[in-house]
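Hi F.,

I've been meaning to write this up properly since the lab meeting, where we talked about keeping a consistent format for the predictions we share between groups. The idea is simple: the sequence comes first, exactly as it goes in, then the structure tokens exactly as they come out, then a line or two of notes. No screenshots and no reformatting. I'm using this chain as the first example so we have something concrete to point to.
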Amino acid sequence: MSRLAAPPMWVWQVLGVYLASRVLATTALLIARTHQGDSFDGWWPEEQPPYGVFVARWWDGWWYEQVALHGYPADLPLDEFGAIDLNEWAFYPLYPGIVRGLMELTGGTWIVLAPLVSLVLGAIALLVIYRLVEVGAPRAVEFRPGLPLASVAVVAFFPSAVVLQVAYTESLALLLVASSLLLLIQRRYEWAMLAVVLLGFTRAIALPMAAVIAVHLALRWWNARAGAESFPRRDQIRGLLLLVTAGLSGVLWLGITALGTGQIDAYFQTQAAWRPGRGSGLFMGWLRLSTFSPLGVVLAVGAVAAIIALLLSPAGRRLSVELWTWTAVYVLFLATVGDVISSQLRFLLLAFPLAIALVGLIPRPRWAARTWTGVLIAGLAVGMVAWVWTVWMQVLLEITFLKAP
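Output, unedited:
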């Protein structure tokens, strides 16, 4: 029998970077949980929760646990004023379903398995991102040797990347987004269909992915007309099927929510419950700026301007069309339908091609590129610790901008 081939060196390098980031995140969480005061009784009835509870039941983790244990309500709950109250339909089923399956298979508990699933999926996601940088940004890699590993490090140490080891969907979503983009660039459309279907049961981001697929197919068609490449009929059919699949995946959960509750706008009403006084309409989240301090407004607007500048910079333009389009469309999606709260920093994890452009801002000489990468990662590491202390620890009745992860 032949021996299995050993993993290539880059696999161990990625896992080493991920391990270092998890040591930092775990240390910050372990210290922070000893300073956690009173929280909701359903999370933990006392101060200083055990580490497992702190990473498996805090914030959205509690909701995902309810989905895993009890499923979804047949009737939308109402608050004391008769409006739709917070409920499980806002939380997509794939992640809690995976954990529930493992619970049934192993007899383990949510508190143990949910963070473990996130941790493992996060590692796999970073491995896929490494390959995606190689395949999807060859010009950028040519300008900046070592770019794939440096980009992975920026993602791993991004402040909100703490959630790659807690009971949140970021690890799964990051894996599926990166896989969808990699398969699309490699033109493995059948496997990409599976990835985008799973994405539709993970987060409400399959429609932005459909836009990327549309641009990819349009570019292939244009290049074929110009004689720059072939676009055989078989690829055209598979590509269109992928586009339709992504579009359907983007609205499937809305339909399931309507059927499950008997209320056609159940999903939108549920989302609106998290935005009292603002609703969930387009750009309604920006109404929250009226509650910000002048510094908060400057930071929010400045963050948007910085992202636009990064995408338009030479480093941003060295991304492939698919990576650039995903980042631009996804950020626009967040600005259009998202709420302007601290959770946006977590959502930006899925705009990970920004890390490629950020690292590539100073590609040469080599000493300057390495220094820039080191300073960048060090700054992000400090931000990760600050994120745990200012966002992850809950303060009852807190109403500031940094309210929840």
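Notes:
The first helix runs from residue 9 to 33.
The chain has a mean pLDDT of 93.

If this format works for you, I'll send the rest the same way.

G.
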